Amino acid sequence: MGADNLLDSVKYLIVSRIVTNNPADYLRDLGVQATAQRLSVWRAVSRRPHLTADDVVEVAEADLGTISRQAVYDALSVLVEKGALRRIQPVGSPARYETRVNDNHHHLICRACGRLVDVDCAVGDVPCLTAADDQGFEIDEAEVVYWGRCPSCVSEGRAPTAFDSPARRRRDADAREARLA
Ligand SMILES: [Zn+2]
Ligand SMILES: [Zn+2]
Description:
- This protein has 181 residues and is α+β, with helices and mostly antiparallel strands.
- It has a three-stranded antiparallel beta sheet. A three-stranded mixed beta sheet has the order 5-4-6, with no helix packed on it.
- 46% of the residues lie in helices and 12% in strands.
- A hairpin with a 7-residue loop joins strand 2 and strand 3.
- It folds into two domains: 3-97, Arc Repressor Mutant, subunit A (Orthogonal Bundle), CATH 1.10.10; 104-131 and 138-180, 2-Layer Sandwich (Dna Ligase, domain 1).
- It has helices spanning 3-21, 23-29, 36-47, 53-64, 69-81, 151-155, 166-180; strands spanning 51-52, 86-88, 96-98, 106-110, 116-119, 145-148.
- It binds zinc ion (ZN) (2 copies).
């Protein structure tokens, strides 16, 4: 890990500590009205990163007693829109949410069990933004997803089944072409 990377991680820890202690202030600073429902949704994601919307519904229900699925979806979309949450949408897997925003980190996803973990940017700040050939585009974001199998699935010999795979992507593409033909 380079010095810049380490500094970023330390900054992230400090900021997240402040934010976790005062989520209402944090949301207000971002221009979000801090309703009980939005706070509950944000706290659910902050305690357990990479939750799906369905997971958030469960946690928020346990927290508030009652909350509609639609209210959770609405809260998630406002929080994403205002930058309080980041939405990750891996191909072939439901969207996940996290509070670790603005640091251009990437994700590792296990094809067998669906486990998803953070991985820091490859080297230094945002080198992923330096495309081999940018074709004249002004690039401001790179989204990298590393697919594979997690250590426990590898050691237990679990097959990559439940999630997106190159084979499945090819099948889907073939099916689309067949429909168009
Ligand atoms: Zn796994
Ligand atoms: Zn993440």
